[in-house]
Protein backbone atom coordinates (compact mmCIF):
# COMPACT_ATOMS: atom_id res chain seq x y z
CA UNK A 1 0.00 0.00 0.00
CA UNK A 2 2.81 2.33 0.90
CA UNK A 3 4.58 1.53 -2.33
CA UNK A 4 1.41 2.40 -4.22
CA UNK A 5 1.21 5.72 -2.45
CA UNK A 6 4.82 6.45 -3.31
CA UNK A 7 4.15 5.54 -6.89
CA UNK A 8 1.25 7.97 -6.98
CA UNK A 9 3.49 10.60 -5.49
CA UNK A 10 6.01 10.09 -8.27
CA UNK A 11 3.42 10.12 -11.04
CA UNK A 12 2.09 13.40 -9.73
CA UNK A 13 5.56 14.86 -9.80
CA UNK A 14 6.01 13.54 -13.31
CA UNK A 15 2.90 15.41 -14.44
CA UNK A 16 4.04 18.70 -12.98
CA UNK A 17 7.70 18.25 -13.87
CA UNK A 18 7.59 20.37 -17.06
CA UNK A 19 6.43 23.27 -14.98
CA UNK A 20 9.06 22.71 -12.30
CA UNK A 21 11.86 22.63 -14.86
CA UNK A 22 10.42 25.66 -16.63
CA UNK A 23 10.04 27.56 -13.40
CA UNK A 24 13.64 26.95 -12.43
CA UNK A 25 15.08 27.74 -15.85
CA UNK A 26 12.81 30.50 -17.10
CA UNK A 27 11.59 32.19 -13.95
CA UNK A 28 13.53 31.47 -10.77
CA UNK A 29 16.98 31.71 -12.29
CA UNK A 30 16.23 34.82 -14.40
CA UNK A 31 14.64 36.42 -11.35
CA UNK A 32 17.77 35.92 -9.26
CA UNK A 33 20.04 36.82 -12.13
CA UNK A 34 18.22 40.08 -12.76
CA UNK A 35 18.47 40.85 -9.05
CA UNK A 36 22.19 40.19 -9.35
CA UNK A 37 22.44 42.38 -12.44
CA UNK A 38 20.61 45.19 -10.74
CA UNK A 39 23.60 45.63 -8.43
CA UNK A 40 26.08 45.62 -11.29
CA UNK A 41 27.29 47.81 -14.02
CA UNK A 42 26.88 45.65 -17.08
CA UNK A 43 29.07 46.04 -20.12
CA UNK A 44 28.62 44.03 -23.26
CA UNK A 45 31.96 43.15 -24.79
CA UNK A 46 32.94 40.88 -27.59
CA UNK A 47 33.78 38.07 -25.17
CA UNK A 48 30.43 38.31 -23.45
CA UNK A 49 29.03 40.22 -20.55
CA UNK A 50 31.28 41.98 -18.06
CA UNK A 51 29.85 42.99 -14.74
CA UNK A 52 31.18 45.39 -12.19
CA UNK A 53 29.67 45.54 -8.71
CA UNK A 54 28.22 48.96 -7.92
CA UNK A 55 26.18 48.12 -4.83
CA UNK A 56 23.01 50.22 -4.71
CA UNK A 57 24.33 52.61 -7.34
CA UNK A 58 21.67 51.76 -9.91
CA UNK A 59 18.91 52.17 -7.37
CA UNK A 60 20.25 55.50 -6.20
CA UNK A 61 20.56 56.65 -9.78
CA UNK A 62 16.91 55.79 -10.42
CA UNK A 63 15.71 57.98 -7.59
CA UNK A 64 18.21 60.82 -7.69
CA UNK A 65 19.46 61.37 -11.22
CA UNK A 66 16.82 59.81 -13.43
CA UNK A 67 13.99 62.28 -12.94
CA UNK A 68 11.74 60.79 -15.60
CA UNK A 69 11.52 57.46 -13.81
CA UNK A 70 10.23 58.92 -10.55
CA UNK A 71 7.80 61.12 -12.47
CA UNK A 72 6.47 58.19 -14.39
CA UNK A 73 6.11 56.02 -11.32
CA UNK A 74 4.14 58.74 -9.53
CA UNK A 75 1.93 59.27 -12.54
CA UNK A 76 1.39 55.53 -12.88
CA UNK A 77 0.40 55.23 -9.22
CA UNK A 78 -1.95 58.18 -9.51
CA UNK A 79 -3.61 56.76 -12.60
CA UNK A 80 -3.87 53.33 -11.07
CA UNK A 81 -5.53 54.66 -7.93
CA UNK A 82 -8.12 56.36 -10.13
CA UNK A 83 -8.61 53.66 -12.74
CA UNK A 84 -8.62 50.42 -10.79
CA UNK A 85 -11.65 51.19 -8.57
CA UNK A 86 -13.50 52.48 -11.61
CA UNK A 87 -12.74 49.34 -13.58
CA UNK A 88 -13.92 47.16 -10.69
CA UNK A 89 -17.11 49.13 -9.99
CA UNK A 90 -17.87 49.46 -13.64
CA UNK A 91 -17.41 45.80 -14.44
CA UNK A 92 -19.60 44.92 -11.45
CA UNK A 93 -22.36 47.21 -12.72
CA UNK A 94 -22.22 45.71 -16.20
CA UNK A 95 -22.18 42.19 -14.78
CA UNK A 96 -25.27 43.03 -12.69
CA UNK A 97 -26.99 44.47 -15.76
CA UNK A 98 -26.14 41.43 -17.84
CA UNK A 99 -27.32 39.12 -15.11
CA UNK A 100 -30.90 40.43 -15.45
CA UNK A 101 -33.43 38.68 -17.59
CA UNK A 102 -32.94 40.74 -20.70
CA UNK A 103 -33.31 40.20 -24.39
CA UNK A 104 -30.20 40.04 -26.58
CA UNK A 105 -28.10 39.03 -23.61
CA UNK A 106 -25.74 37.13 -25.88
CA UNK A 107 -25.27 40.15 -28.09
CA UNK A 108 -24.50 42.45 -25.17
CA UNK A 109 -22.03 39.97 -23.72
CA UNK A 110 -20.33 39.76 -27.09
CA UNK A 111 -19.99 43.53 -27.21
CA UNK A 112 -18.69 43.98 -23.69
CA UNK A 113 -16.12 41.27 -24.13
CA UNK A 114 -14.90 42.50 -27.48
CA UNK A 115 -12.11 44.77 -26.15
CA UNK A 116 -10.26 41.79 -24.67
CA UNK A 117 -9.71 40.57 -28.20
CA UNK A 118 -8.27 43.74 -29.65
CA UNK A 119 -6.55 45.26 -26.65
CA UNK A 120 -3.04 45.27 -28.03
CA UNK A 121 -0.69 48.13 -27.47
CA UNK A 122 -0.33 49.39 -31.06
CA UNK A 123 -4.06 49.23 -31.74
CA UNK A 124 -4.92 51.18 -28.60
CA UNK A 125 -2.14 53.64 -29.31
CA UNK A 126 -3.56 54.23 -32.77
CA UNK A 127 -6.98 54.81 -31.25
CA UNK A 128 -5.62 57.21 -28.64
CA UNK A 129 -3.69 59.10 -31.32
CA UNK A 130 -6.86 59.57 -33.30
CA UNK A 131 -8.66 60.80 -30.20
CA UNK A 132 -11.27 58.07 -30.37
CA UNK A 133 -10.87 57.12 -26.75
CA UNK A 134 -12.52 60.23 -25.35
CA UNK A 135 -16.25 60.47 -25.01
CA UNK A 136 -17.61 61.52 -28.41
CA UNK A 137 -17.83 65.30 -28.83
CA UNK A 138 -17.20 65.99 -25.16
CA UNK A 139 -15.26 69.10 -26.07
CA UNK A 140 -18.48 70.88 -26.87
CA UNK A 141 -19.78 70.70 -23.34
CA UNK A 142 -19.28 73.50 -20.89
CA UNK A 143 -18.10 71.21 -18.11
CA UNK A 144 -15.18 70.00 -20.14
CA UNK A 145 -14.16 73.49 -21.10
CA UNK A 146 -14.39 74.66 -17.52
CA UNK A 147 -12.18 71.77 -16.46
CA UNK A 148 -9.75 72.24 -19.27
CA UNK A 149 -9.25 75.89 -18.41
CA UNK A 150 -8.35 74.97 -14.89
CA UNK A 151 -6.60 71.60 -14.89
CA UNK A 152 -4.56 72.05 -11.73
CA UNK A 153 -6.96 71.17 -8.94
CA UNK A 154 -6.90 67.64 -7.60
CA UNK A 155 -10.47 66.72 -8.53
CA UNK A 156 -10.34 68.58 -11.79
CA UNK A 157 -7.27 66.59 -12.72
CA UNK A 158 -8.99 63.32 -11.96
CA UNK A 159 -12.12 64.26 -13.85
CA UNK A 160 -10.15 65.42 -16.82
CA UNK A 161 -8.14 62.22 -16.88
CA UNK A 162 -11.35 60.21 -16.71
CA UNK A 163 -13.00 62.06 -19.53
CA UNK A 164 -9.97 61.76 -21.72
CA UNK A 165 -9.42 58.07 -21.09
CA UNK A 166 -12.87 56.76 -20.36
CA UNK A 167 -13.03 54.35 -23.23
CA UNK A 168 -9.60 52.90 -22.53
CA UNK A 169 -10.54 52.44 -18.88
CA UNK A 170 -13.76 50.74 -19.87
CA UNK A 171 -11.92 48.59 -22.33
CA UNK A 172 -9.82 47.16 -19.56
CA UNK A 173 -12.82 45.56 -17.91
CA UNK A 174 -13.72 42.67 -20.22
CA UNK A 175 -12.34 39.75 -18.24
CA UNK A 176 -13.48 41.30 -14.98
CA UNK A 177 -17.07 41.50 -16.22
CA UNK A 178 -16.96 37.81 -17.04
CA UNK A 179 -15.54 36.87 -13.66
CA UNK A 180 -18.27 38.80 -11.86
CA UNK A 181 -20.93 37.42 -14.17
CA UNK A 182 -19.84 33.86 -13.56
CA UNK A 183 -19.92 34.44 -9.81
CA UNK A 184 -23.36 36.05 -9.98
CA UNK A 185 -24.74 33.12 -11.91
CA UNK A 186 -23.43 30.68 -9.37
CA UNK A 187 -25.21 32.46 -6.54
CA UNK A 188 -27.81 30.42 -4.78
CA UNK A 189 -31.32 31.37 -5.92
CA UNK A 190 -32.75 30.16 -2.61
CA UNK A 191 -31.07 32.94 -0.68
CA UNK A 192 -32.81 35.41 -2.91
CA UNK A 193 -36.21 33.84 -2.24
CA UNK A 194 -35.59 33.67 1.48
CA UNK A 195 -34.60 37.32 1.57
CA UNK A 196 -37.63 38.23 -0.46
CA UNK A 197 -39.93 36.48 2.01
CA UNK A 198 -38.28 38.41 4.80
CA UNK A 199 -39.18 41.55 2.91
CA UNK A 200 -35.75 42.65 1.68
CA UNK A 201 -35.78 45.18 -1.11
CA UNK A 202 -33.53 44.83 -4.12
CA UNK A 203 -31.36 47.57 -2.75
CA UNK A 204 -30.89 45.84 0.60
CA UNK A 205 -30.41 42.55 -1.14
CA UNK A 206 -27.55 43.94 -3.18
CA UNK A 207 -25.68 45.51 -0.27
CA UNK A 208 -26.31 42.80 2.31
CA UNK A 209 -26.13 39.63 0.25
CA UNK A 210 -24.80 40.06 -3.29
CA UNK A 211 -21.88 42.31 -2.51
CA UNK A 212 -20.53 40.42 0.52
CA UNK A 213 -20.68 37.14 -1.35
CA UNK A 214 -18.80 38.72 -4.23
CA UNK A 215 -15.89 39.84 -2.05
CA UNK A 216 -13.58 36.96 -3.08
CA UNK A 217 -14.25 37.77 -6.72
CA UNK A 218 -13.55 41.43 -6.06
CA UNK A 219 -10.15 40.43 -4.71
CA UNK A 220 -9.49 38.22 -7.74
CA UNK A 221 -10.46 41.08 -10.03
CA UNK A 222 -8.36 43.57 -8.09
CA UNK A 223 -5.29 41.39 -8.54
CA UNK A 224 -6.05 40.74 -12.18
CA UNK A 225 -6.68 44.41 -12.91
CA UNK A 226 -3.58 45.69 -11.16
CA UNK A 227 -1.36 43.10 -12.83
CA UNK A 228 -2.68 43.55 -16.36
CA UNK A 229 -2.73 47.30 -15.96
CA UNK A 230 0.88 47.25 -14.84
CA UNK A 231 2.34 45.04 -17.54
CA UNK A 232 0.45 46.63 -20.42
CA UNK A 233 2.93 47.60 -23.11
CA UNK A 234 1.74 51.21 -23.35
CA UNK A 235 2.57 51.77 -19.70
CA UNK A 236 5.14 54.59 -19.62
CA UNK A 237 7.31 52.88 -17.00
CA UNK A 238 7.66 49.83 -19.19
CA UNK A 239 8.62 52.01 -22.12
CA UNK A 240 11.22 53.62 -19.92
CA UNK A 241 12.66 50.28 -18.81
CA UNK A 242 12.88 49.10 -22.39
CA UNK A 243 14.56 52.30 -23.50
CA UNK A 244 17.19 51.96 -20.80
CA UNK A 245 17.81 48.33 -21.60
CA UNK A 246 19.27 49.25 -24.98
CA UNK A 247 20.96 52.48 -23.92
CA UNK A 248 24.73 52.38 -23.97
CA UNK A 249 25.43 54.37 -20.82
CA UNK A 250 22.85 52.66 -18.60
CA UNK A 251 22.23 49.22 -20.06
CA UNK A 252 21.10 45.93 -18.57
CA UNK A 253 22.21 46.63 -15.02
CA UNK A 254 20.23 49.80 -14.67
CA UNK A 255 17.21 48.38 -16.54
CA UNK A 256 17.26 45.40 -14.15
CA UNK A 257 17.27 47.73 -11.17
CA UNK A 258 14.35 49.64 -12.66
CA UNK A 259 12.35 46.50 -13.27
CA UNK A 260 13.00 45.34 -9.72
CA UNK A 261 11.84 48.64 -8.28
CA UNK A 262 8.78 48.37 -10.46
CA UNK A 263 8.16 44.81 -9.36
CA UNK A 264 8.33 45.83 -5.70
CA UNK A 265 5.91 48.69 -6.33
CA UNK A 266 3.42 46.35 -8.00
CA UNK A 267 3.81 43.84 -5.19
CA UNK A 268 3.22 46.59 -2.62
CA UNK A 269 0.17 47.84 -4.51
CA UNK A 270 -1.24 44.31 -4.61
CA UNK A 271 -0.53 43.75 -0.92
CA UNK A 272 -2.24 47.01 0.04
CA UNK A 273 -5.26 46.36 -2.19
CA UNK A 274 -5.76 42.80 -0.99
CA UNK A 275 -5.03 43.81 2.59
CA UNK A 276 -7.67 46.53 2.57
CA UNK A 277 -10.24 44.16 1.12
CA UNK A 278 -9.61 41.39 3.63
CA UNK A 279 -9.49 43.68 6.64
CA UNK A 280 -12.83 45.12 5.65
CA UNK A 281 -14.23 41.68 5.29
CA UNK A 282 -13.03 40.47 8.66
CA UNK A 283 -14.49 43.49 10.39
CA UNK A 284 -17.88 42.64 9.01
CA UNK A 285 -17.94 39.18 10.44
CA UNK A 286 -16.66 39.88 13.92
CA UNK B 1 -67.25 64.16 -7.72
CA UNK B 2 -66.15 61.19 -5.72
CA UNK B 3 -66.32 58.87 -8.66
CA UNK B 4 -63.97 61.10 -10.51
CA UNK B 5 -61.29 60.95 -7.81
CA UNK B 6 -61.72 57.21 -7.71
CA UNK B 7 -61.28 56.99 -11.41
CA UNK B 8 -58.21 59.20 -11.34
CA UNK B 9 -56.86 57.06 -8.58
CA UNK B 10 -57.44 53.92 -10.60
CA UNK B 11 -55.67 55.34 -13.60
CA UNK B 12 -52.88 56.53 -11.41
CA UNK B 13 -52.41 53.07 -9.96
CA UNK B 14 -52.52 51.44 -13.33
CA UNK B 15 -49.92 53.74 -14.83
CA UNK B 16 -47.81 53.41 -11.74
CA UNK B 17 -47.92 49.66 -12.07
CA UNK B 18 -47.05 49.89 -15.71
CA UNK B 19 -44.05 52.09 -15.12
CA UNK B 20 -42.75 50.81 -11.84
CA UNK B 21 -44.03 47.25 -12.00
CA UNK B 22 -45.29 45.02 -9.24
CA UNK B 23 -42.00 44.16 -7.62
CA UNK B 24 -39.68 46.84 -8.79
CA UNK B 25 -37.95 44.75 -11.42
CA UNK B 26 -40.55 44.32 -14.13
CA UNK B 27 -41.78 47.87 -14.61
CA UNK B 28 -41.41 49.77 -17.81
CA UNK B 29 -39.23 52.44 -16.25
CA UNK B 30 -36.89 49.87 -14.82
CA UNK B 31 -36.62 48.07 -18.13
CA UNK B 32 -36.06 51.36 -19.88
CA UNK B 33 -33.27 52.17 -17.47
CA UNK B 34 -31.58 48.78 -17.93
CA UNK B 35 -31.78 48.79 -21.69
CA UNK B 36 -30.83 52.44 -21.81
CA UNK B 37 -27.71 51.74 -19.79
CA UNK B 38 -26.81 48.65 -21.79
CA UNK B 39 -27.27 50.34 -25.13
CA UNK B 40 -25.47 53.47 -23.97
CA UNK B 41 -22.46 51.63 -22.57
CA UNK B 42 -22.52 49.29 -25.54
CA UNK B 43 -22.26 52.27 -27.84
CA UNK B 44 -19.29 53.64 -25.94
CA UNK B 45 -17.64 50.23 -26.31
CA UNK B 46 -18.30 50.00 -30.00
CA UNK B 47 -17.61 53.64 -30.78
CA UNK B 48 -13.89 53.20 -31.58
CA UNK B 49 -14.68 50.28 -33.85
CA UNK B 50 -17.41 52.16 -35.69
CA UNK B 51 -15.13 55.13 -36.03
CA UNK B 52 -12.31 53.01 -37.40
CA UNK B 53 -14.62 51.26 -39.83
CA UNK B 54 -16.13 54.48 -41.15
CA UNK B 55 -12.89 56.39 -41.46
CA UNK B 56 -11.16 53.53 -43.21
CA UNK B 57 -13.59 53.92 -46.10
CA UNK B 58 -13.28 57.68 -46.41
CA UNK B 59 -11.49 59.07 -49.41
CA UNK B 60 -9.34 62.14 -49.01
CA UNK B 61 -12.18 64.39 -50.14
CA UNK B 62 -14.49 62.95 -47.53
CA UNK B 63 -11.88 63.34 -44.84
CA UNK B 64 -11.42 66.99 -45.66
CA UNK B 65 -15.10 67.70 -46.10
CA UNK B 66 -16.54 68.82 -42.76
CA UNK B 67 -20.05 67.96 -43.91
CA UNK B 68 -19.22 64.29 -44.22
CA UNK B 69 -19.32 62.81 -40.79
CA UNK B 70 -20.51 59.26 -40.41
CA UNK B 71 -21.45 58.21 -43.91
CA UNK B 72 -18.78 58.46 -46.64
CA UNK B 73 -20.04 59.77 -49.95
CA UNK B 74 -18.56 56.89 -51.86
CA UNK B 75 -17.39 53.38 -51.19
CA UNK B 76 -13.67 54.00 -51.27
CA UNK B 77 -11.28 51.09 -50.85
CA UNK B 78 -8.05 52.88 -51.73
CA UNK B 79 -7.09 53.13 -48.06
CA UNK B 80 -7.22 49.38 -47.75
CA UNK B 81 -5.13 48.86 -50.84
CA UNK B 82 -2.40 51.08 -49.44
CA UNK B 83 -2.64 49.66 -45.92
CA UNK B 84 -2.43 46.19 -47.38
CA UNK B 85 0.83 47.12 -49.10
CA UNK B 86 2.29 48.78 -46.03
CA UNK B 87 1.42 45.92 -43.70
CA UNK B 88 2.29 43.33 -46.33
CA UNK B 89 -0.88 41.80 -45.06
CA UNK B 90 -1.00 38.18 -46.15
CA UNK B 91 2.58 37.20 -45.49
CA UNK B 92 2.51 39.07 -42.17
CA UNK B 93 -0.71 37.31 -41.29
CA UNK B 94 0.90 33.93 -41.93
CA UNK B 95 3.86 34.87 -39.79
CA UNK B 96 1.58 36.12 -37.03
CA UNK B 97 -0.35 32.86 -37.05
CA UNK B 98 2.93 30.96 -36.94
CA UNK B 99 4.17 32.78 -33.84
CA UNK B 100 0.82 32.70 -32.05
CA UNK B 101 -0.79 29.35 -32.80
CA UNK B 102 2.19 27.17 -31.94
CA UNK B 103 2.98 28.77 -28.55
CA UNK B 104 -0.74 28.79 -27.75
CA UNK B 105 -0.93 25.06 -28.48
CA UNK B 106 2.15 24.31 -26.40
CA UNK B 107 0.90 26.46 -23.56
CA UNK B 108 -2.50 24.75 -23.53
CA UNK B 109 -1.01 21.26 -23.63
CA UNK B 110 1.38 21.94 -20.77
CA UNK B 111 -1.24 23.73 -18.70
CA UNK B 112 -3.48 20.67 -19.08
CA UNK B 113 -0.76 18.26 -17.95
CA UNK B 114 0.36 20.41 -15.01
CA UNK B 115 -3.19 21.24 -14.00
CA UNK B 116 -4.00 17.55 -13.97
CA UNK B 117 -0.97 16.77 -11.86
CA UNK B 118 -1.92 19.42 -9.32
CA UNK B 119 -5.57 18.47 -9.22
CA UNK B 120 -5.40 14.68 -9.01
CA UNK B 121 -2.21 13.85 -7.15
CA UNK B 122 -0.77 14.47 -3.75
CA UNK B 123 2.95 14.98 -3.51
CA UNK B 124 5.32 16.70 -1.21
CA UNK B 125 5.64 20.41 -1.79
CA UNK B 126 2.40 20.65 -3.70
CA UNK B 127 1.18 23.59 -1.66
CA UNK B 128 4.41 25.50 -2.21
CA UNK B 129 4.24 24.76 -5.88
CA UNK B 130 0.70 26.04 -6.02
CA UNK B 131 1.75 29.30 -4.42
CA UNK B 132 4.66 29.59 -6.87
CA UNK B 133 2.33 29.02 -9.83
CA UNK B 134 0.19 31.92 -8.67
CA UNK B 135 3.29 34.00 -7.98
CA UNK B 136 4.45 33.66 -11.58
CA UNK B 137 1.34 35.58 -12.58
CA UNK B 138 2.32 38.56 -10.49
CA UNK B 139 5.95 38.77 -11.60
CA UNK B 140 6.05 41.35 -14.38
CA UNK B 141 7.66 39.96 -17.54
CA UNK B 142 10.07 42.90 -17.49
CA UNK B 143 11.89 41.48 -14.48
CA UNK B 144 12.82 38.23 -16.15
CA UNK B 145 13.17 39.77 -19.59
CA UNK B 146 16.84 40.74 -19.53
CA UNK B 147 18.23 37.44 -18.20
CA UNK B 148 16.01 35.53 -20.60
CA UNK B 149 17.22 37.75 -23.41
CA UNK B 150 20.86 37.05 -22.53
CA UNK B 151 20.08 33.36 -22.11
CA UNK B 152 18.26 33.11 -25.46
CA UNK B 153 21.08 35.01 -27.05
CA UNK B 154 23.51 32.37 -25.83
CA UNK B 155 21.26 29.58 -27.04
CA UNK B 156 21.12 31.47 -30.32
CA UNK B 157 17.35 31.38 -30.52
CA UNK B 158 16.67 35.10 -30.58
CA UNK B 159 14.71 35.97 -33.68
CA UNK B 160 13.19 32.54 -33.91
CA UNK B 161 9.93 31.07 -32.74
CA UNK B 162 11.71 29.16 -29.97
CA UNK B 163 11.99 32.36 -27.96
CA UNK B 164 8.20 32.17 -27.51
CA UNK B 165 7.79 28.44 -27.78
CA UNK B 166 10.37 27.33 -25.23
CA UNK B 167 8.95 29.13 -22.18
CA UNK B 168 5.43 28.14 -23.25
CA UNK B 169 6.44 24.46 -23.45
CA UNK B 170 7.61 24.63 -19.86
CA UNK B 171 4.59 26.41 -18.47
CA UNK B 172 6.19 29.85 -18.28
CA UNK B 173 4.44 31.45 -21.22
CA UNK B 174 2.13 34.44 -21.19
CA UNK B 175 -0.26 34.16 -18.26
CA UNK B 176 0.44 30.43 -18.01
CA UNK B 177 -0.65 30.54 -14.39
CA UNK B 178 -4.22 31.38 -15.38
CA UNK B 179 -4.44 28.41 -17.70
CA UNK B 180 -2.98 26.02 -15.16
CA UNK B 181 -5.58 27.31 -12.72
CA UNK B 182 -8.39 26.74 -15.22
CA UNK B 183 -7.32 23.14 -15.80
CA UNK B 184 -6.77 22.63 -12.08
CA UNK B 185 -10.34 23.72 -11.33
CA UNK B 186 -11.66 21.65 -14.16
CA UNK B 187 -9.90 18.39 -13.32
CA UNK B 188 -10.74 18.72 -9.67
CA UNK B 189 -14.40 18.54 -10.58
CA UNK B 190 -13.98 15.23 -12.44
CA UNK B 191 -15.44 12.51 -10.18
CA UNK B 192 -12.87 10.26 -8.51
CA UNK B 193 -15.06 7.22 -9.10
CA UNK B 194 -14.42 7.48 -12.82
CA UNK B 195 -10.70 7.29 -12.28
CA UNK B 196 -11.04 4.36 -9.90
CA UNK B 197 -13.22 2.45 -12.32
CA UNK B 198 -10.64 2.91 -15.05
CA UNK B 199 -7.90 1.82 -12.67
CA UNK B 200 -9.80 -1.39 -11.90
CA UNK B 201 -9.90 -2.02 -15.61
CA UNK B 202 -6.14 -1.81 -15.58
CA UNK B 203 -5.58 1.63 -17.04
CA UNK B 204 -2.48 3.50 -15.93
CA UNK B 205 -2.36 7.15 -14.94
CA UNK B 206 -1.31 8.33 -18.36
CA UNK B 207 -4.00 6.35 -20.09
CA UNK B 208 -6.58 7.75 -17.71
CA UNK B 209 -5.32 11.22 -18.45
CA UNK B 210 -5.40 10.83 -22.19
CA UNK B 211 -8.53 8.75 -22.66
CA UNK B 212 -10.79 9.96 -19.84
CA UNK B 213 -9.71 13.28 -18.35
CA UNK B 214 -8.55 15.07 -21.48
CA UNK B 215 -11.65 14.45 -23.62
CA UNK B 216 -13.80 15.63 -20.74
CA UNK B 217 -11.78 18.82 -20.49
CA UNK B 218 -12.65 19.97 -23.99
CA UNK B 219 -14.27 23.24 -22.84
CA UNK B 220 -11.17 24.06 -20.81
CA UNK B 221 -8.94 23.21 -23.76
CA UNK B 222 -10.91 25.46 -26.09
CA UNK B 223 -11.01 28.39 -23.72
CA UNK B 224 -7.37 28.07 -22.87
CA UNK B 225 -6.28 27.83 -26.48
CA UNK B 226 -8.40 30.80 -27.52
CA UNK B 227 -7.13 33.02 -24.75
CA UNK B 228 -3.49 32.04 -25.28
CA UNK B 229 -3.95 32.69 -28.97
CA UNK B 230 -5.35 36.16 -28.41
CA UNK B 231 -2.81 37.07 -25.76
CA UNK B 232 0.12 35.91 -27.85
CA UNK B 233 -1.30 37.75 -30.82
CA UNK B 234 -1.52 41.00 -28.89
CA UNK B 235 1.88 40.67 -27.26
CA UNK B 236 4.10 43.28 -28.84
CA UNK B 237 6.51 44.14 -26.07
CA UNK B 238 8.19 40.74 -25.78
CA UNK B 239 7.77 40.03 -29.49
CA UNK B 240 9.62 43.20 -30.46
CA UNK B 241 12.55 42.38 -28.19
CA UNK B 242 12.80 38.63 -28.79
CA UNK B 243 12.12 38.59 -32.50
CA UNK B 244 13.96 41.74 -33.53
CA UNK B 245 13.64 42.08 -37.28
CA UNK B 246 13.60 38.36 -37.98
CA UNK B 247 9.91 37.76 -37.36
CA UNK B 248 7.05 40.16 -37.37
CA UNK B 249 3.38 40.21 -36.46
CA UNK B 250 0.47 42.35 -37.55
CA UNK B 251 0.46 44.42 -34.33
CA UNK B 252 4.21 44.98 -34.71
CA UNK B 253 3.72 46.07 -38.30
CA UNK B 254 0.99 48.42 -37.14
CA UNK B 255 3.41 49.91 -34.64
CA UNK B 256 5.80 50.73 -37.46
CA UNK B 257 3.00 51.75 -39.81
CA UNK B 258 3.92 55.41 -40.19
CA UNK B 259 7.60 54.74 -40.70
CA UNK B 260 7.01 51.98 -43.24
CA UNK B 261 4.53 54.12 -45.10
CA UNK B 262 6.92 57.01 -45.41
CA UNK B 263 9.59 54.69 -46.65
CA UNK B 264 7.34 53.14 -49.27
CA UNK B 265 5.67 56.33 -50.39
CA UNK B 266 8.14 59.16 -49.82
CA UNK B 267 6.33 62.47 -49.75
CA UNK B 268 7.21 64.50 -52.80
CA UNK B 269 8.50 67.95 -52.12
CA UNK B 270 5.93 70.65 -52.55
CA UNK B 271 3.19 68.29 -53.62
CA UNK B 272 0.49 68.05 -51.03
CA UNK B 273 -2.17 65.39 -50.92
CA UNK B 274 -1.73 62.42 -53.18
CA UNK B 275 0.82 60.34 -51.43
CA UNK B 276 0.48 61.69 -47.94
CA UNK B 277 -0.46 59.39 -45.11
CA UNK B 278 -3.91 60.28 -43.87
CA UNK B 279 -6.21 59.20 -41.11
CA UNK B 280 -8.17 56.97 -43.45
CA UNK B 281 -5.12 54.90 -44.38
CA UNK B 282 -4.08 54.59 -40.76
CA UNK B 283 -7.53 53.45 -39.76
CA UNK B 284 -7.59 50.95 -42.60
CA UNK B 285 -4.28 49.59 -41.30
CA UNK B 286 -5.67 49.30 -37.79
CA UNK B 287 -8.78 47.55 -39.04
CA UNK B 288 -6.68 45.11 -41.07
CA UNK B 289 -4.47 44.32 -38.11
CA UNK B 290 -7.41 43.37 -35.91
CA UNK B 291 -9.63 41.88 -38.59
CA UNK B 292 -8.38 38.29 -38.25
CA UNK B 293 -8.93 38.42 -34.48
CA UNK B 294 -12.40 39.89 -34.96
CA UNK B 295 -13.31 37.08 -37.33
CA UNK B 296 -12.01 34.46 -34.91
CA UNK B 297 -13.92 36.16 -32.14
CA UNK B 298 -17.24 36.27 -33.94
CA UNK B 299 -16.97 32.61 -34.85
CA UNK B 300 -15.94 31.50 -31.39
CA UNK B 301 -17.47 34.12 -29.10
CA UNK B 302 -19.80 31.55 -27.55
CA UNK B 303 -16.82 29.69 -26.16
CA UNK B 304 -15.01 32.82 -25.18
CA UNK B 305 -17.87 34.08 -23.11
CA UNK B 306 -19.32 30.85 -21.80
CA UNK B 307 -16.02 29.12 -21.31
CA UNK B 308 -15.12 31.26 -18.35
CA UNK B 309 -18.31 30.43 -16.47
CA UNK B 310 -18.06 26.76 -17.34
CA UNK B 311 -14.40 26.09 -16.87
CA UNK B 312 -14.62 27.44 -13.34
CA UNK B 313 -11.94 30.10 -13.50
CA UNK B 314 -13.72 31.66 -10.56
CA UNK B 315 -13.53 28.61 -8.34
CA UNK B 316 -16.38 26.90 -6.57
Notes on the protein architecture:
Chain A: This is ABC transporter permease. Chain A: It comes from Fictibacillus phosphorivorans. Chain A: Pfam families: BPD_transp_1 (PF00528). Chain A: It is a multi-pass membrane protein. The complex is a heterodimer of chains A (286) and B (316). Chain A is mainly alpha-helical and 286 residues long. Chain A has a single domain, classed as MetI-like fold (Orthogonal Bundle). Chain A is 78% helix and 4% strand. In chain A, strands 1-2 form a two-stranded antiparallel ribbon. In chain A, strand 1 and strand 2 form a beta hairpin. In chain A, helix 8 packs antiparallel against helix 10. The radius of gyration of chain A is 24 Å and the shape is globular. The mean pLDDT of chain A is 81. With 316 residues, chain B is mostly helical. Chain B has 16 helices and no strands. The N and C termini of chain B lie far apart (63 Å).
Provide the gyration radius of chain A in Å: 24 Å
State the major sheet of chain B. Answer: none
- The SSE order of chain A reads HEEHHHHHHHHHHH
Q: Kindly identify the CATH topology of chain A.
A: MetI-like fold
Please estimate the helix content of chain B. over 70%
Structural class of chain A: mainly alpha
Domain ABC transmembrane type-1 (chain A): 73-273
Transmembrane segments (chain A): 12-33, 80-99, 106-124, 158-184, 205-232, 252-279
Subcellular location (chain A): Cell membrane
Keywords (chain A): Cell membrane, Membrane, Transmembrane, Transmembrane helix, Transport
